[in-house]
Amino acid sequence: MLHHRHFVIQLQTMDGGTVRYFSVQNRRIRSHARPHAKPDFVMNFKDEDYALKILSKATPMAFMKGMQAGDIKMEGDFSLLMWFNNAAKFLQPDIPKPVRQAVKWVKTQKKALTA
Q: Where in the chain are the domains?
């Protein structure tokens, strides 16, 4: 999937508060926590929680529903979306149970503060 591929995919929230791009070049994928000057493809998600939910599912149907609802907007070379959908299943880390519990606790605290 990486052979002879050179491009940049950027993921971000619609407000631009969270941005990360992935550069694919020389059979390597590098991740950067900042915006790229000229990404080849950009996926905008309504917020961080929604992006994590959709990306962890890694199914075309989840992306389609998000696009129809206006919660995901995309621009650029759409052929890279197909590449990303295929690659996403290999990018998901196995999150240890204590970390999952901590994330759940933080989300609960965040909801309590905003309520």
A: 7-114
The residue-averaged pLDDT of 76-97 equals: 73
Question: Long-range contacts of range 61-65, CB-CB < 8 Å, 24 or more positions apart?
Answer: none
Q: Which CATH architecture has domain 7-114?
A: 2-Layer Sandwich (3.30)
11: Cβ contacts below 8 Å, ≥ 6 apart: 19, 20, 21, 22, 42, 43, 45, 51, 55
pTM: 0.70
Alpha carbon 49 to chain centroid, angstroms: 10
Spatial distance between the Cα atoms of 21 and 10, rounded to a whole number of angstroms: 4
Quick one: tokens of 30? 């590098």
15: tokens are: 């407000």
